[in-house]
Amino acid sequence: MSEHHGYSEHDVQREVSELQAKSATAARIFDLRRIIGGLFVLYGIIVTIAGINPSDSSLDRSEGININLWTGLGMLLLGIFFLVWLKLKPVAPVRVDEPEE
């Protein structure tokens, strides 16, 4: 025997739809492309700034190559790539199939 507890089928469907909408929102917020892209952009900016005015000793250690500048720019480009990819191909919305009656 199952107890009904005053919930109608419509209430249950509405609650399921709300939970699916929250799940889709969470999926968009925590999309790894957003996290990875954001971190690479942030660190790319920091490393690029560090590479703008390199010290003589850091250039000597890297055989005359401004490694901070080039690494920072590469990280920045990679981060921008991830964010553009996210913008061009966002997470697909969750489809709610209506039950047949």
Structure description:
With 101 residues, this protein is an all-alpha fold. The chain contains four helices and no strands. The protein has helices at residues 9-29, 32-52, 56-61, 67-88.
Topology:
Elements: H1 9-29, H2 32-52, H3 56-61, H4 67-88
Helix pairs in contact: 2-4
Report mean pLDDT, rounded to a whole number: 80
Termini separation:
22 Å
Structural class category: mainly alpha
The largest sheet is:
none
Helix and strand element order: HHHH
Morphology: rod-shaped
Secondary structure tally, helices? 4
Low-confidence stretches: none
Radius of gyration: 25 Å
How many β-strand stretches?
Answer: 0
Strand content: under 5%
Amount of helix: 55-70%
